[in-house]
């Protein structure tokens, strides 16, 4: 049994706390302890209240660091948040629907999400923002461009590690595929993409940002394969149409008019 350390000077106590936090790997308590101790003395906080403040500080900081790690692991190309999305610039998008999606119940249920619209209508912004929300809520997320994903799958097939690559993409809770439908895929590439979607079907969510489904016949030249992919991405899922009017273009024109 350890012997209580009584009669310790304040300086010795602070040194002991610092050493103990290092040994127990409590960096947030080690950093915040002096300020919290002063606050506890000013407010005449109880021992239990002071202990609770210390432990909650560590828990909150660990949760923040876990979120940061998950967001980094998702490999988003840039930071995008729902707070920064301009709903006024695209009135066709219902804020209530987007904020409901931000609860990530669809990710929990393994449902797909399709963000469909022309360039500049905010679908990539929403894809990244909703993916970020999922990562912050504890889900494993991965973002990729459609062409990059297909190229990786083709290389994996050539190197005979396709099953391992498909399984890796199958494990994440949410796979975000951007710019799907913009480039024509040969039958082999489309079939490999279909394997990833099949691996995830009704188990883990897929979210895509793409142009209109009507243009997919140019991306997936095999009609049956195209229909099967559309079915995988829409069955029991959510479809958000972001429209055809580019608000990026509108903003550029507005700035140009102001400058002139």
Question: What order do the helices and strands come in, and which of them pair?
Answer:
Blueprint: H1 10-24, H2 27-42, H3 47-74, H4 95-101, H5 105-108, E1 113-117, H6 123-136, E2 141-145, H7 146-158, H8 162-171, E3 174-180, H9 187-200, E4 205-210, H10 216-219, H11 223-234, E5 238-243, H12 247-259
Helix pairs in contact: 1-2, 2-3, 3-6, 7-8, 7-9, 8-9, 9-11
Describe this structure in words.
- This protein has 260 residues and is α/β, with parallel strands linked by helices.
- The protein is built from twelve helices and five strands.
- The protein has helices at residues 10-24, 27-42, 47-74, 95-101, 105-108, 123-136, 146-158, 162-171, 187-200, 216-219, 223-234, 247-259, and strands at 113-117, 141-145, 174-180, 205-210, 238-243.
- A five-stranded parallel β-sheet has the order 2-3-4-1-5.
- Strand 3 (174-180), helix 9 (187-200) and strand 4 (205-210) form a beta-alpha-beta unit.
- The longest helix has 28 residues, at 47-74.
- The chain is elongated and about 80 Å long.
- The N and C termini lie far apart (80 Å).
- The relative contact order is 0.13.
- The model has no long low-confidence stretch (mean pLDDT 88).
């Amino acid at each position: 049994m350890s012997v209580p350390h009584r009669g310790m000077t304040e300086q010795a106590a602070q040194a002991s706390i610092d050493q103990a936090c290092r040994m127990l790997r409590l960096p947030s308590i080690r950093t915040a302890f002096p300020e919290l101790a002063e606050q506890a003395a000013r407010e005449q906080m109880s021992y239990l209240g002071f202990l609770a403040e210390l432990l909650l500080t560590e828990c909150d900081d660990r949760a923040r660091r876990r979120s940061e790690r998950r967001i980094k692991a998702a490999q988003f190309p840039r930071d995008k948040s729902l707070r920064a999305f301009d709903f006024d610039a695209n009135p066709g998008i219902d804020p209530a629907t987007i904020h409901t999606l931000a609860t990530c119940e669809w990710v929990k249920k393994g449902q797909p999400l399709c963000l469909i619209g022309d360039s500049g209508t905010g679908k990539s912004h929403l894809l990244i923002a909703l993916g970020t929300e999922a990562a912050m809520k504890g889900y494993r997320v991965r973002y990729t461009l459609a062409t990059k994903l297909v190229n990786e799958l083709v290389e994996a097939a050539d190197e005979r590690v396709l099953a391992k690559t498909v399984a890796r993409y199958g494990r994440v809770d949410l796979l975000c595929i951007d710019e799907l439908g913009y480039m024509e895929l040969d039958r082999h590439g489309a079939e490999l993409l279909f394997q990833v979607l099949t691996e995830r079907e009704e188990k883990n969510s897929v979210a895509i940002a793409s142009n209109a489904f009507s243009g997919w016949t140019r991306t997936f030249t095999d009609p049956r394969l195209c229909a099967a992919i559309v079915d995988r991405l829409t069955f029991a899922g959510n479809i958000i149409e972001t429209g055809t009017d580019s608000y990026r273009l509108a903003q550029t024109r507005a700035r140009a008019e102001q400058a002139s």
